[in-house]
Amino acid sequence: MEKLVIKGGNKLSGEVTVSGSKNAALPIFISTILAPGCHTISNVPFLRDINTTIKVLEKLGATVDGRGNVVKIDTTNLNSFEATYDLVRTMRASVLVLGPLLARFGQARVSLPGGCAIGARPINLHLKGLAALGAEITLEHGYVEAKAKKLKGARINFDISTVGGTEQLLMAAATAQGETILENAAREPEIVDLAEILIKMGADIDGAGTDTIRIKGVEGLVAAEHAVMPDRIEAGTFMIASAITGGDIKIKNMRLDHLDALSFKLQDAGVEITNKDNMVRVKGPKKIRNVNIKTRPYPGFPTDMQAQFMALMCIAEGASVISENIFENRFMHVSELLRFGADIICEGNSATVKGVKKLSGAPVMATDLRASASLILAALAADNTSEISRIYHLDRGYESIEKKLAGLGADIARVPDNEGP
Ligand SMILES: CC(=O)N[C@H]1[C@@H](OP(=O)(O)OP(=O)(O)OC[C@H]2O[C@@H](n3ccc(=O)[nH]c3=O)[C@H](O)[C@@H]2O)O[C@H](CO)[C@@H](O)[C@@H]1O
Ligand SMILES: C=C(OP(=O)(O)O)C(=O)O
């Protein structure tokens, strides 16, 4: 077990490079099941979730060869259509193998992911969509068993905007017979990235990035090469790291247009943001202004940035209201932020954050991926030293975050945690 030890107070400066996107890379890796052959994926981040996805693919019979940030996935000889509980429970996104396995083998057996720290996160809309494409679906002993001789195109109207559900159906429909129309589809950039690799494989997809996606099923797909888009949540986390420390940093390999909702709110808070020479400069103000946010599906404010933005509001002038509208239990960071001396009151899906003059370093515990990031941010701004335990959550989604922050001048170290569980 390891923990992070952070001595707060340093203003960040210098340059940092954003890694490839976790949430784009996971479905992209899984999409290779659809097309037998050797795929080359570049700009891949080194993350625990990527290793889990590789294990899922290897268990299906794929050969995976990773060097640097380039991973070659050969799906020619897949010989299994099952994803087991031990892997799916550690990473919910592995449930996305369902659609591609059904499309390739006519059957799939995949463990139900179960809930997680931030909410129940059912997959009912994935299953409803696959059933609409003609799959026969049963639930047996915690597993989804799905069968379909040949999936058939259909019109699917999602009850709510679901990123995973849209990705699942996009992949399942790529080789289905006839046309599929996904309505009220999620519009996240990661869906566009997935559609791009599917199109390179030979899929006929139109409208990814809008709420209506048309997929004309094709006979078969071929192996492709693709570079994963930059991680917008990692980039957003660095933007707030600069803002919260009153820093002045330049961020490389980021798409500012993927982060409009966050950028506008940061500018409202007094942060200066400029995009020049393929770098985004983020300069924190002397004093942060209070700003309200409501999380929404893209292009709204991302739920995956809510915890980090709350950390920033902890030292704002005045009170802000933060509403979480995507997940029902995504305020676990609140009780830990209180340990830094923050003033936060939660009621239902809203948290009222009254800015305090100074946060004070404390021992805290990470409870999920983005909660971990919010604690790092609070610790960077706090007086004295903080210790953050259970950082294994962090390693699921941030590549070498302590090294990148140290490169920007933060006093941060990863050390063994002998008191951990
Ligand atoms: C690996 C990955 O890309 N994860 C992201 C993805 O998660 P994920 O794809 O799991 O999130 P969804 O967009 O599906 O979830 C949005 C909401 O829909 C609900 N829902 C979803 C599917 C379903 O069948 N039924 C249902 O009720 C969920 O419980 C949640 O309340 O999008 C989330 C929302 O932007 C992000 O926070 C996650 O980082
Ligand atoms: C919630 C997240 O990821 P996942 O869907 O993999 O749990 C996240 O990236 O913040």
CATH topology of the largest domain: UDP-n-acetylglucosamine1-carboxyvinyl-transferase, Chain
- Count the E strands: 24
Spatial shape? elongated
- Helix-and-strand structural type: alpha/beta
Q: What helical percentage do the residues reach?
A: 25-40%
Low-confidence stretches: none
Can you summarize the main beta sheet? Answer: 4 strands, mixed
Q: What would you say the CATH architecture of the largest domain is?
A: Alpha-beta prism
Hetero ligands: uridine-diphosphate-N-acetylglucosamine, phosphoenolpyruvate
**Number of separate domains:** 2
Reading off the top of the CATH hierarchy, the class of the largest domain is best stated as Alpha Beta
Oligomer: single chain
Strand content: 25-35%
Alpha carbon gap, first and last residue: 8 Å
How many DSSP helices? Answer: 13
User: Strand sequence of the main sheet, in spatial order?
Assistant: 22-23-1-24
Mean pLDDT: 96
CATH homologous superfamily (4th level) name of the largest domain: Enolpyruvate transferase domain
What is the gyration radius calculated from CA atoms? Answer: 21 Å
